[in-house]
Amino acid sequence: MTPRRVLVTGGNRGIGEAIARRLQEDGHTVVVTSRSGEAVEGLTVVACEITDSDSVDTAFVEAKERLGGEVEVLVANAGVTKDTLLMRMTDEEFSSVVDTNLHGTFRCVRRSATPMVKARFGRVVLISSVVGLYGSPGQTNYAASKAGLVGIARSMTRELGARGITANVVAPGFIETDMTAQLPDKTKAEYQAAIPARRYGGAAEVAAAVSFLASDDAGYISGAVIPVDGGLGMGH
C-alpha cells in the first residue's frame, strides 16, 4: 500500500475515529477534523466547522501543513442527526441536517478536488448510511442528506475519473457507536431483528471497507456504494 496523506472529517470519535486509526495503521499520514479541534490521543486534529466554507478552507490549509503536502485521500465522515416524524419536522431541523451532512461534504469535496486534479490522483470516500438508501421513519432529513452523497460521488466520478480520482460511498448499517446507543431499546431490537446477520456491526468493520477504497487495489472502483450493514439494505 502506497502511503498517502489523508484527511478524515469528524474523525475525533465513533466511526470516524476508527477509520482514522485504521488508516494510520495502514501506514498513511492522517489528520482528522472536529468542530472543537480538541486533542485526541494518538491523532492529529484540526478544527473545522463544515457548515462554513471559510472554516473548511482554513482546515485544509492547516492539514496541508501537518501532512507535509496536499490531501490525497479525503474521507468525509462528519454528520449529525435531528430525528423526528415528517409531519413534526421543522424547516430548521431539515435544513440544518442537510447543510451539515450533504452541503458540508460538498464543501470538503470541492476544496479537495483542485489539488487532486493537479496531482492526477485522489481518493474520496463519503460515509453515507443504509438509511439513505433504505429509508427510516423519523429520519427524512438524515435519509435525504445521506442519499445525496451517492449523487456527489457518481457525478464526481464522471467529472474527474479521467484524472486518476475515484469517489466512492460506504453505507454503514447499524454500528455500535454513541449515536446508535441513543436509540430507544425497542427501535434497536426491531432493527437487529431485521438484520440478516442478527447483530450490529463494529466501527472497525466500516474502517476496513474505507481502508480498501483508499488503497492501490481499489484504483478501478469508482461511483460505487459499498454497504457495511450485515445484509440489511440488500443493495438498495
Structure description:
- With 236 residues, this protein is of the alpha/beta class.
- It has one domain (5-228): Rossmann fold.
- Helix content is 45%, strand content 15%.
- It contains 8 helices and 7 strands.
- The protein has helices at 14-25, 53-67, 91-119, 130-134, 140-160, 178-181, 185-194, 203-213; strands at residues 5-8, 29-34, 44-47, 73-76, 122-127, 165-172, 225-228.
- A 7-stranded parallel β-sheet has the order 3-2-1-4-5-6-7, with helices on both faces.
- Helix 1 (14-25) packs across helix 8 (203-213) and helix 2 (53-67) runs parallel beside helix 3.
- The chain is globular.
- The two termini are 31 Å apart.
At a glance:
The protein has 236 residues and is an alpha/beta fold. Helix content is 45%, strand content 15%. It has a single domain (5-228), classed as NAD(P)-binding Rossmann-like Domain (Rossmann fold), CATH 3.40.50.720.
Order of helices and strands: EHEEHEHEHHEHHHE
Write down the CATH topology: Rossmann fold
Helical segment tally? Answer: 8
Quote the beta fraction.
Answer: 15-25%
**Overall domain count:** 1
- Mean pLDDT metric: 95
Strand order of the largest sheet: 3-2-1-4-5-6-7
What is the helical fraction, as a range of percent? 40-55%
CA radius of gyration: 17 Å
CATH homology-level superfamily: NAD(P)-binding Rossmann-like Domain
Low-confidence segments: none
| Biggest sheet record | 7 strands, parallel
- State the end-to-end CA separation: 31 Å
What is the structural class? Answer: alpha/beta
The CATH architecture is 3-Layer(aba) Sandwich
CATH class category label: Alpha Beta
Q: Count of DSSP E strands? A: 7
What best-fitting shape do the alpha-carbon axes yield? globular
